Amino acid sequence: MNYTHLGRTGLRVSRIGLGTMNFGEWTDEATSFRIMDEALDSGINFFDTADVYGGPQAPDMAKGYGISEEIIGNWLTQDASRRDRIVLATKVYQPMETGPNDKYLSAYHIRRACEASLKRLKTDHIDLYQMHHVDRATPWAEIWQAMEQLIREGKITYVGSSNFAGWDIATAQCMATSQNLLGLASEQSLYNLTERAVELEVIPALRHFGIGLIPWSPIGRGLLGGVLGKIASGRRASPAMQQQIELLRPKLEAYELLCKNLGENPANVALAWLLQNPVVTSTLSGPRTAEQLRENLKTIDLELSADTLAKLDCIWPGPGGEAPQAYAW
Predict the structure, then answer these.
(1) Which of these is catalytic: 3, 53, 93, 129?
(2) Does domain 3-222+265-309 have CATH number 3.30.360.10?
(3) What's the CA gap between 258 and 313, in Å, rounded?
(4) How far is CA 313 from CA 32, 194, 328, in A?
(5) 103, 185, 110: which is closest to 140 by C-alpha?
(6) Which parts of the chain fold into alpha helices (H)?
(7) Mean pLDDT over residues 72-86, rounded?
(8) Is-catalytic flag, 53?
(9) Taking the complete model, does pTM exceed 0.70, yes or no?
(10) pLDDT tens-digit profile of 119-149?
C-alpha cells in the first residue's frame, strides 16, 4: 500500500480508502467484518463512514441510520489494537431524527451528532469529522467554534468537508485562518471520469489552500466498472441504470474497449485516473464483497501512460480546464 499526507496535514493515509456506505444496507455485518479485515491486512488505514449510512437515505426517514457506524464499532471491539491502526472518518449534517435541530451544522447539532457517532463507533475519538454538506444558514463563526470545542475535548482531531462549492471552501478556510485555526484538512466531492465539474473551481480552491481531495463515487455508481460487459454476461441493471447506460453507450463502449486493450479492469482504470491527479489524497473503494476490494487494490500498481490519459480525456472530456479560462479565455 502507498500512503500520502491528508492535504497539508502531517497525517498519512492510504491512497485507497475503505468506503463503508454499503455496510448495513447492502452488506451484512459478517461480510462487512471480512471486508474490514482484508482492508486492514492489505495496508488500508483510511476508513470512511457517515452517521447516515446504513439505511434508506431520504430526508424523512431516520430508521436504519447509523448502522454502518455500529458495524464498524462492533468490529473495533473485537480487537482493541485495530483502533490505533486506522484513520477513522465520519460525517455530520444529515437528519438523524425528526426534530428541527436534528440536522445541519448548528453547534447544537454538531455536538449531539458527534456524541452519537462516538457511541455507535464505540470509540472515544474521531480522526476526521466531515461536514456532509454545506449549511449556508449557519455562520462559520458558530461552526468553527463547535468544531474547535470538540478538538479541545479530544473527541475529533481534524475537520473535513464534503460536497462544498469552491467558494464555500474559500469562505470556510478564510474564517478558520482569521481565528488561527487549521481549518479544513480534506474535501469529499463527487469526482470521476463521468463527473468532472469539480475541475472548474473546487480543485483549484483545494490546491490553493492545501486541502486534500477524496473523490466519492469514483466509478460513477458502477458505470465505469465494466457495466456493458457485465450486462452482456447476464447481469441485470436497474431501470435508472439502464437509462444512464443508453445515454452514455457510445462513451462506455469506447471506454471498455480501451480498458480491454490495456488488459485492465475498467473500475481500476477509473481509480488509477483519479490517483494520478496530485490534488487527490485518497480515493474510496466502496465494496459490497471482499472480492471487490481485492480487485480494487490492484489499482496501487497501475500507472496510466500519457497516451492513455489523453485517450480517456477524448472519451470523457472535462469542462475544458479551470475557471475562468475554461469559458472566458
Answers:
(1) 53
(2) no
(3) 12
(4) 35, 10, 21
(5) 110
(6) 29-42, 67-78, 107-121, 140-152, 166-178, 202-209, 227-232, 239-262, 266-275, 290-297, 306-315, 325-328
(7) 96
(8) yes
(9) yes
(10) 999 999 999 999 999 999 999 999 999 999 9
